[in-house]
């Protein structure tokens, strides 16, 4: 199923081509997201290359040729990703990578993404084990603070790193929801026998473009058509849309990782729909494959699935959603089973 991807790649490309100049309807009409949902150009940032003392580490803007180096960092840190995913993140966040380089090698990195001048997200902060303790991570964080000034950046933090981030932020972080990076083999999906009668699983090309973008925006608040195109268009990815009475009730995507597969996003309107969609995506990959994903702890289907597979599933780490100044909760966070990416985006 994952071998025959060329034809599907072309189909999805055509599916998304119309989105570049299309003015998308707003899904949310008020509340704390009123400014976030307005599409405005991002502000111009000041960026400088600096040297990290006697260690001779250069802090600079990332570029596409850094993909293998960033991939090596992720591999060393045992992050279960794939070089294709790293490349996709570079394409999604063109000027968002900050790279620490020493002797021509990537020894640290940080990723930011600007959706508009009110919403910036960050992640993928990692330093080579050989360079830890030499101030490389601190210089990356100081560079981000200098570049973005007083902007409010949303990100996820592993629990033990929060104190470090607060120290460099110069103030307590605004904390929000929690989740976990889970991995394992999922053999048991506790669905009622007649659950599939209510829902239909469809390929992307069978749904209307504007409906899919609107559905994603109902979760993410800010429309992200170009990001979705790049993420779902990755040639190794497989995606499904959950339909209920002909209307979108969820969608999800799964793709190869270093060890098994990475699942994300997976959004659905209720517990049963989530499990139907999850089972559909799991059925696309070889039986008993390892699957990694970021699961918000508030998701009911997630807790049921973890319990049903407790002997074959583990937790890498707990993470907290944070913001430098003010954390704004995602309105449908409880319906998020798997984040699209923990590196860029609200969910």
Automatic annotation (TrEMBL):
Gene Ontology MF annotations: acyltransferase activity, transferring groups other than amino-acyl groups
Pfam families named in the record: Acetyltransf_1 (PF00583), Acetyltransf_18 (PF18014)
Domain N-acetyltransferase: 57-192
Annotated signal peptide: none
Superkingdom of origin: Eukaryota
SUPFAM superfamilies: Acyl-CoA N-acyltransferases (Nat) (SSF55729)
Matching PANTHER family: SLL0310 PROTEIN
Protein name listed in UniProt: Uncharacterized protein LOC106177653 isoform X1
Species, as recorded: Lingula anatina (Brachiopod)
Lineage: Eukaryota, Metazoa, Spiralia, Lophotrochozoa, Brachiopoda
């Amino acid at each position: 199923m994952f071998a025959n991807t060329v034809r599907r790649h072309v189909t999805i490309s055509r599916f998304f081509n119309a989105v570049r100049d299309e003015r998308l309807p707003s899904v949310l009409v008020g509340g704390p997201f009123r400014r976030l949902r307005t599409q405005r150009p991002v502000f111009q940032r000041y960026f400088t290359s600096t040297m990290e003392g006697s260690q001779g580490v250069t802090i600079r803007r990332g570029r596409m040729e850094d993909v293998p180096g960033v991939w090596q960092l992720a591999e060393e840190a045992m992050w279960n990703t794939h070089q294709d995913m790293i490349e996709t993140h570079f394409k999604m966040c063109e000027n968002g990578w900050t790279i620490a380089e020493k002797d021509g090698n990537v020894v640290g990195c940080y990723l930011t993404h600007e959706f508009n001048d009110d919403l910036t997200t960050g992640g993928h902060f990692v330093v080579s084990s050989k360079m830890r303790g030499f101030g490389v991570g601190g210089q990356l964080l100081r560079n981000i603070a200098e570049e973005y000034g007083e902007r409010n950046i949303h990100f996820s933090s592993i629990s033990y790193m929060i104190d470090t981030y607060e120290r460099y932020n110069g103030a307590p972080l605004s904390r929000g929801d929690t989740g976990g990076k889970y991995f394992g083999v999922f053999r048991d999906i506790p669905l009622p026998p007649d659950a599939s009668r209510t829902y239909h699983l469809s390929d992307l090309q069978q749904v209307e473009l504007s409906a899919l973008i609107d559905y994603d925006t109902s979760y993410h608040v800010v429309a992200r058509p170009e990001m979705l195109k790049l993420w779902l268009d990755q040639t190794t990815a497989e995606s499904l849309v959950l339909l209920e009475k002909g209307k979108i009730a969820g969608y999800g995507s799964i793709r190869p990782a270093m060890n098994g597969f990475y699942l994300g996003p997976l959004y659905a309107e209720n517990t049963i729909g989530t499990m139907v969609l999850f089972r559909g995506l799991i059925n696309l990959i070889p039986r008993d494959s390892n699957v990694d994903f970021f699961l918000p702890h508030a998701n009911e289907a997630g807790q049921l699935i973890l319990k049903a597979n407790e002997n074959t599933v583990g937790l890498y780490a707990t993470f907290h959603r944070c913001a430098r100044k003010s954390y704004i909760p995602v309105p449908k966070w409880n319906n998020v089973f798997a984040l699209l990416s923990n590196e860029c985006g609200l969910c």
